[in-house]
Amino acid sequence: MKRAVLIAVSLLLAVTLGAAGLVGYRTFLRPPDNPPAEACAKGPGARPRVVAAGASMTQGALGADWVGALRAALPAYEFVNAGVNGDTAADLARRVGTDIVACRPAAVTLLVGTNDVRNAVPVEQYRDTLGEIVTRVRTATGARVALMSLPPLGEDQDTEINRRLTRYNTAVKEVAEQTGADYLPLHERLTDLLRQDGGPLTAYDFGFPLAFWVAAQHHLLGRGWDDIAHTGGRRILVDHVHLTDTGGAVVTDLTTRWLPEAVPLSARG
């Protein structure tokens, strides 16, 4: 009897650890589709190349994969996913050469800064780093660059962290104006959605246990990001940070409207 119980417990533990490992890999370790290391090694192709650079919201393993949605919506372009979990603007600046410039893109989207806000990186430092990234990309590649404003942290705007985030979004807009980059109002569109929905809004309460729990529901149980978020009373953020499919659709829409104008296919002959 004791032997049977021991075997059962061992099997349960093995299954639990295996499931946890699978979730951890798919969420935090698995590279995105068509990362720079693969795309840049191939050299330029027949389609104009678009590099989506940023952190976990761009990588798309925890929350909406809006880069994948763009591939489906705009197959005439090649999309490179240069999102890296946990990156700040300074982290992205360190890999501009390998992950953006080396890909020789026609266009680049930049969505980075959420981790700068969360880590309390001085806004002046963030502004300077973001400007450095845009300048390096434009000088080295001539690519059109689109800067996206940062989504809310938690859906309640009347919180200290979202008041602080406002200053970072002001910096994003200033960098766009100073460098000639295009500005995509992601934050504005998302907050409009929240206002239209009405009802109570959840305050920022992100933590690793919650992130792992929502990832497990998605990767193990197949639940959609919208469904997971709605269970917790959220609309656009699955875990107070990362985008639901509804939130990701806003990024896709903004980019789909911008890109054909920024890099017209007809102009490429």
UniProtKB/TrEMBL annotation:
Residues 54-206 form the SGNH hydrolase-type esterase domain. One of its GO terms (molecular function) is phosphatidylcholine lysophospholipase activity. Transmembrane segments: none annotated. It holds the Pfam family Lipase_GDSL_2. PANTHER family: SGNH HYDROLASE-TYPE ESTERASE DOMAIN-CONTAINING PROTEIN (PTHR30383:SF5), THIOESTERASE 1/PROTEASE 1/LYSOPHOSPHOLIPASE L1 (PTHR30383). This is Lysophospholipase L1-like esterase.
